[in-house]
Amino acid sequence: MLSISRQALQRLPLYLNYLKSLPPGTVNISATAIAQALGQGDVQVRKDLAAVSDRGRPKVGYDTHGLIRDIEEFLGYDNVDTAVIVGAGNLGRALLCYDGFSTYGLDIVAAFDADYTRQGVLENGKQIFPVSRLGELCERMKVKIGIITVPAAAAQKVCDTMIEAGVLAVWNFSPVRLTVPAGVLVQDENMAVSLAVLSQHLAEKLRESEEDAV
Amino acid sequence: MLSISRQALQRLPLYLNYLKSLPPGTVNISATAIAQALGQGDVQVRKDLAAVSDRGRPKVGYDTHGLIRDIEEFLGYDNVDTAVIVGAGNLGRALLCYDGFSTYGLDIVAAFDADYTRQGVLENGKQIFPVSRLGELCERMKVKIGIITVPAAAAQKVCDTMIEAGVLAVWNFSPVRLTVPAGVLVQDENMAVSLAVLSQHLAEKLRESEEDAV
C-alpha cells in the first residue's frame, strides 16, 4: 500500500460520494471525468486514485464498482468500528441518533453523561450511561473510537480516560486542543473555528459595503 | 487593520477560549504564556495577536479583558449575525436548539424543511418552515448566513436559493463541494472527511498490530 498525504485522504470521501452518485449503468469512469465533475486538478485526482487502487487502465479508466470498493477498503469502511460518545447534550444526542454513520463503518454503540437526568435508554434503543462507567465499558466493548461532545473544561479528562481504556482515535467536538500520546489520533471538529471564519468574512463584507457607501 | 491568514484566523478562537478560561483576577497575560498553555509557537502567537490588537506592552503583556474584546471585535462576535438552517433532521435540529452560538455572535432564527411532518414550532419557540419559503424569508429577515444540513442531492439548489436571497456565507454540513459566486464564502463541515481520517488511522493501526503478531 502506498502512503498517502492527509490532504489526499481528505479528498477520498469526495470521490466516493461522487462515484456513488453516478447512474447505475456507469461501468467505467476516468480520473479526468472525476476531476472535472468535482473541480479538482486532473493530475491530483489521478495520483490520489493510483495510491488506493490499481484498477486504472489507459483510455478506459477505472471499473466504477471496483474503484468504490478499493476506496472503501482503504478507508476502512468495510470494517465496522465501534465508537462511544461522551456528552449527551443536543449535539451528542444528534450524533447518537444519526443513522448515516454506518455508511462510513462507524457504529456508535452508547453515550455517557455526568448529568443523571440525561441517563437512560433512547427511542432508538441506545443507552446513555453515567460517565463514571466510561473506562470500564470501553475496555469491555473494545471501543477504539471516542467522540467528545462535553464542555471545554471536561474534555481532557474524558480523553485521558478513553485512551487508558484502549481508544486509539478521538473525534473531538469540544473547543480544546487535546494532549494525547503518540499513536493516538485526534480529529478536531471545531465549530468555533468555523464560526470565526464565517463571522470574520461577514464583518469584512460589511466594512467593504460601508466603505463603498462613503 | 492588518490582513491575517486563514490559519491565523482559525487560531483566534483557541486564544479566545483560553483567555476566557483564565481566573477572573488575571489582569495581564503575555503571548508567551498563551503559547505555552496551548502548545503553540511563541513567535506565531505574538504575530497573530499583533494583527488584531495593539494593546501588547513589553514585559507586561496584554490587558486580558482588552485583548478578549479586540479578538471578539475582529471576529465580528460583537455584531450578531442572523442565520437560518435548511434541513431539520437530527443535526439541523441539534444546531437549531444549541444555545451556545450566541457567544459567537450567531443567532439561528429559523429552519426550513421539505418534509411537512417536521414543520411547526419547536419547544424553544423556533419555527421550521416549508423550504418553499426559504428565499422570501431570507430576504425579508436580511439573513446573511445560511446553514445547510440537507442530503447531498439537495444541497446545491438550497445554496443557490440562499445566495439569490442575499446570503453571503454558507456553513455547509452536506458532503458536497458547493459552487458559489465570488464574494460568497463556503465553510465546509464535512463529517465524512473527518470519519475517513479516523477510520483510516484505525485501519492502519490494525494492520500494524497484525504485522507485529506475525
Task: Provide a brief overview of the structure.
With 214 residues, chain A is of the alpha/beta class.
- CATH fold label of the largest domain in chain A: Rossmann fold
- The CATH architecture of the largest domain in chain A can be given as 3-Layer(aba) Sandwich
Total number of distinct structural domains of chain A: 2
Describe the oligomeric state of these chains in a short phrase.
homodimer
Unreliable runs of chain A, pLDDT <50, ≥5 residues?
Answer: none
The helical percent of chain A reads 40-55%
Count the DSSP helices of chain A: 8
- Measured by DSSP, the beta-strand proportion of chain A falls in 15-25%
Biggest interface between chains: A-B, 59 and 58 residues
Name the features:
214 residues, homodimer, Rossmann fold, alpha/beta, Arc Repressor Mutant, subunit A
Question: Overview of this structure, please?
Answer:
- Chains A, B: InterPro entries: CoA-bd (IPR003781), NAD(P)-bd_dom_sf (IPR036291), Rex_DNA-bd_C_dom (IPR009718), Tscrpt_rep_Rex (IPR022876), WH-like_DNA-bd_sf (IPR036388), WH_DNA-bd_sf (IPR036390).
- Chains A, B: Keywords: Cytoplasm, DNA-binding, NAD, Repressor, Transcription, Transcription regulation.
- Chains A, B: Belongs to the transcriptional regulatory Rex family.
- Chains A, B: One of its GO terms (biological process) is negative regulation of DNA-templated transcription.
- The structure is a homodimer of 214-residue chains.
- Chain A starts with 5 loop residues before the first helix and ends with a helix.
- In chain A, helix 1 packs across helix 4.
- The radius of gyration of chain A is 21 Å and the shape is globular.
- The first copy, chain A, has 8 helices and 9 strands.
- Chain A is 46% helix and 17% strand.
- With 214 residues, chain A is an alpha/beta fold.
- Chain A folds into 2 domains: 70 residues, Winged helix-like DNA-binding domain superfamily/Winged helix DNA-binding domain (Arc Repressor Mutant, subunit A, Orthogonal Bundle); 113 residues, 3-Layer(aba) Sandwich (Rossmann fold).
- The relative contact order of chain A is 0.09.
- The model of chain A has no long low-confidence stretch (mean pLDDT 88).
- In chain A, the strands form 2 sheets. Chain A has a 7-stranded mixed sheet with strand order 5-6-4-3-7-8-9, sandwiched between helices. A two-stranded antiparallel sheet of chain A has the order 1-2.
- In chain A, strand 3, helix 5 and strand 4 form a beta-alpha-beta unit.
- At the A-B interface, helix 1, helix 5 and helix 8 of A face helix 1, helix 5 and helix 8 of B.
